[in-house]
């Protein structure tokens, strides 16, 4: 089996973000971290690599701060990280992000699987895996909660609402994983110290051969505002679900929402 690749995003820690009086976000004291969803993807890649004796590498695209992520990422079982730090990432939407990652993957070589989190902890657009698959011309398997490889065939259990779907594919493929697929490891001192000796390769955005249109966002972010819930929480617990629905509709109508 060929080596594996994991895509991850370096995001602001939402626990450090404060909502001010005018609902704007105060990020002045917020630290960065690997998106929690992507930690599951990294763990899935590391476990598969350990089980099958193959290498697992990672790719990330972010602003200049993304360089700070390398040691943490490499301490989680990865063998190498490719990173692209550019100010364009500040305004990049799912379209631009996928274009950059796809171009970098083509430059990095062949991979049996490309793993992503189901979404990022900031934008949570849930589009990266699907867009990557289209750009690379390979299958996408999304919302995966179980993943295994036997005799070169990838078997994935997808979570679809209140049911599941088993999918088998012969790679390469792009796979997005759900948080319940695993519990990300907490690197120990040995892993953290060892990460400093692992390779990391920086690529400039200009090295990827992308056209200006590939780097022009389709979605323009005007501002971001926090959300404060001011509505009283009401739980309807009638035995008959029809009664619960009727009470819900009546409550919404009372608030002028329907």
UniProtKB/TrEMBL annotation:
One Pfam assignment: ETF
Gene3D superfamilies given in the database record: HUPs
The organism's place on the tree of life at top rank: Bacteria
Gene Ontology terms, MF aspect: electron transfer activity
Domain Electron transfer flavoprotein alpha/beta-subunit N-terminal: 22-212
Alphabetical list of SUPFAM superfamilies matching this protein: Adenine nucleotide alpha hydrolases-like (SSF52402)
Name under which the protein is recorded: Protein FixA
